[in-house]
Design brief:
Helix content is 47%, strand content 22%. The chain contains nine helices and nine strands. The strands form two sheets. A six-stranded antiparallel beta sheet has the order 6-5-4-9-8-7, with helices on both faces. β4 and β5 form a beta hairpin. α2 (28-35) packs across α3 (39-51). 28% of the residues are buried.
Length: 250
């Protein structure tokens, strides 16, 4: 009985996890394909989730997240301590740099944006909360991987391929880059994931060697001069220390 209950919970959560920042609605057959269940079995779970308000049926026989899911997300955010602590510090950093500020973490073999403050400038780098990116390309990904377990680094290096002309695809060069991140406690990307974008990231330490979140500044390459990048790194490290002190007490 317990095993069946857990399996049902797994399937229900798998269905809810089909929806992300890029997926507003899905047809029943698309849900069934994503969770690897028959259409009939998927329909039973979908109907239950609709009944409880976690899904809603839209026009055209499609499904999207329901009001219960929205409310649960809002409640979770209100209790998400790093969100409450980081928001004013990130806003202050944005005001000093005038550039886009993001907070990233690990999630399912990707880095995901869990908080973002928009640039004050008209030409800006924009990401959305919930948006996902590779761990092996870009400053934030390198910063997270630099403090990750060796097996995680090996897994991600197996995925290396060129996204731009600047993407690091050589294994030895990538390992050397991660070592440099650990030594300097900072990572910089010059268009490694997206051409024309300069980004930097610094770790937010839980302890001296453990990192769950990184703080990032991103700007168009046309205005990210070396002098400004150095300035933004110093400001970001100060902001990261402020967050760490309030979250982890060190």
């Amino acid at each position: 009985m317990e095993k069946n209950t857990i399996r049902s919970l797994d399937r229900g959560l798998a269905i809810l996890s089909c929806f992300d920042i890029h997926t507003e609605s899905l047809a029943l057959n698309q849900i069934a394909e994503r969770v690897n269940l028959s259409v009939a079995t998927s329909l039973r779970f979908v109907n239950a989730l609709v009944e409880y308000g976690f899904l809603k049926k839209t026009d055209g026989k499609r499904y999207s997240l329901g009001m219960k899911a929205y409310i649960l997300g809002v409640v979770a955010m209100s209790h998400f301590k790093i969100h409450r602590v980081a928001q004013p510090i990130m806003t202050a950093l944005r005001d000093e740099t005038r550039e886009a500020i993001s907070l990233y973490t690990f999630e399912d073999e990707e880095r995901v944006c869990c908080q973002h403050v928009e640039s004050l400038l008209s030409m800006r780098c924009a990401v959305r909360v919930g948006e996902r990116f590779p761990l092996w390309a870009g400053a934030s990904g390198k910063c997270l991987l630099a403090y990750a377990a060796p097996e995680v680094v090996e897994r991600e290096m197996a995925k290396l391929h060129a996204m731009t002309d600047s993407t690091i695809v050589d294994r030895d060069s990538f390992l050397k880059e991660l070592q440099q991140v650990r030594e300097t406690e900072q990572a910089v990307s010059h268009g490694e994931r997206e051409q024309g974008i300069v980004s930097l990231a610094v770790p937010i330490f839980t302890t001296r060697n453990q990192v769950d979140y990184v703080l990032s500044v991103a700007a168009p390459a046309s205005r990210a001069t070396p002098e400004l990048v150095r300035k933004y790194i110093a400001l970001s490290k100060d902001a990261a220390r402020k967050i760490a002190r309030q979250i982890y007490g060190w």
